[in-house]
Write a structure and sequence with these properties.
Length: about 210
């Protein structure tokens, strides 16, 4: 994998996937608890299975340019995560990979990310404010557009996940609960915030190296 303008190398990509899979594994029980409260209790196990599958293909993925690797990882997640979140998280990565030029800078990344979030919204027939992962994906977009550094993007993602707690779910399985969905964090929002934190830490480690 050649080095892009963002300085993302094959090693960076590798570290990122390893760190994501580790964070999902470490938080799988918490994600499942969140999903048990307002869903069907499989989110942690589903995400863990998906990221372990991506991890299993890491050697092959790391030989590809970053956009191609993202597309392949997204497809793997669609095939292995299942539930409602598999196609959504997979769509995010696949679209990101499709929209990113081979040699991308920060601005190109933000533009590709915007298209990826819109693709998730279209796939889930959802929009912001329905207590879903979109309620974290859009605040991440806003923060990146404003030029926030990775740490701040991650902090805003965590705050956005916290902000799903008092929300009423109007999309997804939690919406079947109506008012009883209030008072719990959306599991998809929690996963996305967790992954944003991993991306921030990984970028910082590598930029600081
Ligand atoms: Mg579930």
């Amino acid at each position: 994998m050649s080095e892009s303008k963002t300085g993302m190398t094959s090693d960076d990509f590798r570290s990122l996937v390893v760190a994501m899979a580790a964070a999902i594994e470490a938080n799988a029980d918490r994600l499942t608890e969140l999903d048990s409260a307002i869903g069907d209790g499989d989110h942690g196990a589903n995400m863990k299975r998906g990221f372990q599958a991506v991890l299993g293909e890491l050697d092959q993925l790391a030989t590809k340019p970053v956009p191609e690797a993202l597309k392949a990882a997204g497809m793997k997640l669609v095939m292995t995560v299942g539930g409602a979140s598999g196609p959504l998280v997979g769509t995010l990565l696949m679209t990101l990979g499709k929209e990113l030029p081979a040699d991308f800078d920060r601005q190109a990344f933000v533009m590709a990310y915007e298209k990826a979030v819109d693709a998730v919204a279209a796939r889930g027939k959802s929009h912001a404010g329905q207590k879903t992962m979109l309620d974290v994906l859009y605040p991440i977009l806003d923060a990146m557009r404003e030029g926030a550094d990775p740490d701040e993007v991650a902090a805003r993602a965590r705050a956005a996940a916290d902000a799903t707690v008092p929300m009423l779910a109007t999309r997804g399985r939690a919406s079947f609960l109506g008012e009883r969905s209030i008072g719990h964090m959306d599991p998809g929002a929690a996963s996305v915030a967790l992954l944003a934190g991993v991306v921030a830490r990984t970028l910082q480690t590598h930029q600081g190296a």
